[in-house]
């Protein structure tokens, strides 16, 4: 009986996926005060804020402008997409708005869970809103009812994005940028799994696009696309020749 041994030659996996935590694209953020960030499956939604209003931008993933709206919402630090509506939170007035993006009209709103709201994410059922001072993420219903407080990593946590069972957050440290991290944790309890240095030392919000993490960068005024493909994953396109040895 002949034995068959298959030898698969792996080549180019890093080129196909990039390194975990590697910035694979970036473009200048509109405006001067980068805030909230969300991804709706096609477009990025980004907030540039002031103390009296915020400009909401609809952007392509290469940074092209699709529209912009000035809203009387100061300090929009978090944006999230629920599959139908855009959500925005305001740091100083403490309101959370559900917005119809066809005309940017407010559908509903509620008083937020914290006076220190930053980034926001959504898993399709709940909103997750970061509290930078108390270092926890509030899991709330679309009407604002509290469901859970999830402890997250310090210092000064800000951004939020939901990737299935995982919760992504950022830590911020302008003076020691190596302390500014993108942290992957379990959504159920906030237990950290892994982290890498954030491309910006003060990133207020995050968004997820498959295996890519989008980062709103306040310090450098850039929006970054970061590869967060699990390191063990190998793309089928990265497989090289398959040799069959018969004996």
For the structure shown, list the relevant keywords.
Neuraminidase, mainly beta, four-stranded antiparallel sheet, 247 residues, disordered C terminus, globular, disordered N terminus
Shape: globular
SSE string? EHEEEEEEEEEEEEEEEEEEEEE
Q: Which structural class should the secondary elements be placed in? A: mainly beta
Main sheet strand line-up: 2-21-20-19
| Residue share in helix | under 10%
Oligomer: single chain
Cα gyration radius (Å): 20 Å
Largest sheet: 4 strands, antiparallel
End-to-end Cα distance, whole Å, is 8 Å
Give me the CATH architecture of the largest domain, please.
6 Propeller
Number of strands: 22
Low-confidence stretches: 1-17, 233-247
CATH topology of the largest domain: Neuraminidase
For the record, what is the CATH homologous superfamily label of the largest domain? TolB, C-terminal domain
Counting DSSP H or I runs of 4 or more residues, the number of helices is: 1
Structural domains: how many: 2
| β-sheet strand percentage | over 45%
Q: Kindly report the average pLDDT value.
A: 88
CATH class of the largest domain, named Mainly Beta
Description:
The chain has 247 residues and is mainly beta. The protein has 2 domains: 1-18 and 231-247, no CATH class; 21-228, Neuraminidase, CATH 2.120.10.30. Helix content is 2%, strand content 53%. It is built from 1 helix and 22 strands. The chain has one helix at 13-17, and strands spanning 4-10, 23-28, 34-39, 44-49, 54-59, 65-71, 76-81, 86-90, 95-100, 105-111, 117-122, 127-131, 136-140, 146-151, 160-163, 166-170, 181-186, 192-197, 205-209, 212-217, 222-227, 239-246. The strands form 6 sheets. The chain has a 4-stranded antiparallel sheet, with no helix packed on it. A 4-stranded antiparallel sheet has the order 3-4-5-6, with no helix packed on it. It has a 4-stranded antiparallel sheet with strand order 7-8-9-10, with no helix packed on it. A hairpin with a 2-residue loop joins strand 15 and strand 16 (166-170).
